[in-house]
Amino acid sequence: MQVRLTYQLTGVPGGAAKELVRQARDAWVKRGYKFQSSDADWSDPFPSVSMRTVPDDFWMTALTGVVDRAKGEGLAAISVTSPCFAADSVATADPATFRTAPDEQAERRALAYSSRIYDALQVPHAPLGEGEGAGTYRDGSQTYAHHSWSTQPLTEEETARAMERVQNYFDGVGWTVRHVPTGAGMPALVARNTTDGSVAHVAPSTTGAVRVAVTTPSVPEEPAMA
User: Fold this and answer.
1) Of 124, 148, 152, 120, residue with least CA distance to 136
2) Which of 68, 109, 110, 217 ranks highest by number of CB atoms within 10 Å?
């Protein structure tokens, strides 16, 4: 499960709305939070700032712009998205068991790989869509952890640069990579970690978003040695 909260302040002068978002950015920077890509382009009609907390990995976005040019009124909006967590186990599981269960280990690996792919892409994420997020599923006797999300829509040039960066990441960590044709005109990357069998799909889409999915098999715990 992920929790997302959005707060909007409307009907304020456009310049004041922009200053409020800058104040939020400055407060986040002062607390040591990291830019997800770079600072906002403040010349853009709707500049946005995307940051993340360290090390717990909350995602935060602040957006501003003028929504009524006749009145000069703007908005300032802040969204915060939590990292994924297992909602059905948090309240009752023993902490040590929760950390070491094979299914939980697989979920943590999937989320860690997903986070590293996010760092490699260096582009802002979009709010979770239908069917996205973290979960597990079973295929026969094997259980898999799965995490999926999408970036915000990108230009063709931005997509090409982001895909090149993630290709370099996979090459650098030794994942095997295949290129798969897509309807977006740019091939998707299907990468496999030969050590634990994890598979990552990073695919451009016709909407301009890059869709990311990571699937990791659970590895049964080895019996304790006598």
Assistant:
1) 148
2) 110
Domain 95-217: state its class: alpha beta
CA distances from 66 to 71, 148, 151, 213 (A): 9, 33, 24, 35
Is the Cβ–Cβ distance between 204 and 186 less than 8 Å? Answer: yes
Asked whether 155 and 215 are in contact (CB, 8 A), the reply is no
pLDDT tens for each residue of 33-82: 888 767 777 776 677 788 888 878 888 888 776 655 566 667 777 878 88
What digits encode the pLDDT tens for the residues 201-214?
999 999 999 999 99
As a CATH number, domain 4-81 is 3.30.310
Closest to 147 in 3D by CA, of 169, 132, 160, 129: 132
Beta bridge partners of 189: 179, 202
